[in-house]
Design goal:
This protein is an all-alpha fold. The chain is built from 6 helices and no strands. The chain starts with a helix and ends with a helix. Belongs to the tetraspanin (TM4SF) family. InterPro entries: Tetraspanin/Peripherin, Tetraspanin_animals, Tetraspanin_EC2_sf.
Length: 253
Amino acid sequence: MGVCTNLAKCLLIFTGACYLVSAGVLSYIGIWVFSTYDHFDEIADSSLTLLPASIILAGSVFMCIVGILACIAAFKNHKVLLAVFFSLILLVFIGEVAAGVLGYVYRSKVNGVLNDNLNDAINDYNLSSYKEQIDYMQQEFHCCGVHNATDWADSASWKTNHTGLVPESCCKPTHGNDTCVPEITSKDIYHEGCLDKLNSEFRKNLVYIATAAVILALIQLMALLSTCILVCRTREERNYQTLNETGGSGLRV
């Protein structure tokens, strides 16, 4: 067995180990993105992060299977296992590239989609699902309204009975006996809008997803190369053995 074959085997085993570790990391990233989005599922379009995150989670399941198969194929040096491994890893590679492309494409569209979603949510603030998530967002990101606190003065569902006021979730933390006066002009509330902060949060998620996809794509390219080397070497060794057997039998009388 040549040095090239041994090197390819070691690289394939290393790739399999990387796949198992990466599957765990990707699962964590995907679950983290889903848990982050859970607080904004009514006010933000799911295409912002859930579609790429779903592909990442599906890829992590494949990678766990592929990682185990890579180690077995490397030890057994079996042509069929190597072919199955090559096919699976190619599917995962295509999925990760798709996730990376989606992450890059949606990165530039996040601001416009969020702006429309947040304006719709503020206009329908009296609906319980919107109210809960808008309040959570304003308290979590220390913001008020879409662009600033004055957006509440234009909210169709809010301004009717709350002229000049903002929701209490816009209030800054109070100390002691201090109380918050939730008026648009009050110093007790946050005046910075939530759009930029929420946009930054979703863009950060997409950056994590795209970075993970690029790193895994590099690992997958190494695995594809190693598999091709092993398949070619296995075929050469079998052809060489066949020639030896044929040559040996030809010398017999």
